[in-house]
């Protein structure tokens, strides 16, 4: 009788495996620029939206622990500017103040942890500073 108890427990738990929602993968999320072209200068605000690609909904409360903006698209990766995080205007929207000192291509690199997800979301987004 003791050998049947583990089997009964397994059979009883089997339907629960199908009742649980599918877990997301870190690849199910992405940062998107809200504007791809920004006016060159100091005090420029770069804004991104973090979305769940499966639903298209914004994802709030991400912890962005690494950020960088540089001119890598124009072959000048060492030409970087400081990024200052700003308060979120709404859930799932993340903004940074920076100095786009030159017109041309800029790369925004972000690394974030998402609540309830394993792994790190890394994004490299390309924008353009215009005169």
Question: How would you characterize this protein structure?
Answer:
This protein has 131 residues and is mostly beta strands. The protein has a single domain (24-130), classed as Immunoglobulins (Immunoglobulin-like, Sandwich), CATH 2.60.40. It has one helix at 4-19, and strands at residues 29-33, 37-39, 41-52, 63-71, 76-81, 83-86, 93-100, 104-113, 121-130. The chain has a five-stranded mixed beta sheet with strand order 2-9-8-4-5, with no helix packed on it. The chain has a four-stranded antiparallel beta sheet with strand order 1-3-7-6, with no helix packed on it. Residues 16-22 have low confidence and may be disordered.
Observed structural traits:
131 residues; mainly beta; Immunoglobulin-like; five-stranded mixed sheet; four-stranded antiparallel sheet; 9 strands; 51% strand; elongated
List the helices and strands and how they pair.
Blueprint: H1 4-19, E1 29-33, E2 37-39, E3 41-52, E4 63-71, E5 76-81, E6 83-86, E7 93-100, E8 104-113, E9 121-130
Parallel strand pairs: 2-9
Antiparallel strand pairs: 1-3, 3-7, 4-5, 4-8, 6-7, 8-9
At the third CATH level, what is the topology name? Answer: Immunoglobulin-like
Q: Mind telling me which CATH architecture this is? A: Sandwich
Give the C-level CATH assignment: Mainly Beta
Radius of gyration: 21 Å
Q: How many angstroms separate the termini?
A: 81 Å
Shape: elongated
Give the biggest beta sheet.
Answer: 5 strands, mixed
Order of helices and strands: HEEEEEEEEE
Question: Helix tally?
Answer: 1
């Amino acid at each position: 009788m003791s050998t049947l108890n583990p089997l009964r427990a397994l059979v009883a738990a089997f339907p629960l495996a199908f009742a649980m929602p599918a877990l997301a993968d870190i690849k199910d999320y992405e940062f998107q620029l809200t504007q791809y072209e920004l006016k060159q200068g100091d005090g420029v605000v770069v804004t991104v939206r973090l979305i769940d690609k499966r639903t298209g909904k914004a994802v709030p409360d991400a912890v962005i622990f690494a950020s960088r903006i540089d001119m890598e698209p124009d072959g000048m990766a060492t030409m970087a500017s400081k990024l200052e995080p700003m308060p979120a205007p709404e859930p799932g929207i993340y903004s940074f103040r920076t100095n786009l000192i030159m017109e041309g291509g800029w790369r925004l690199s972000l690394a974030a942890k998402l609540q309830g997800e394993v792994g790190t979301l890394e994004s490299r987004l390309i924008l353009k500073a215009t005169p």
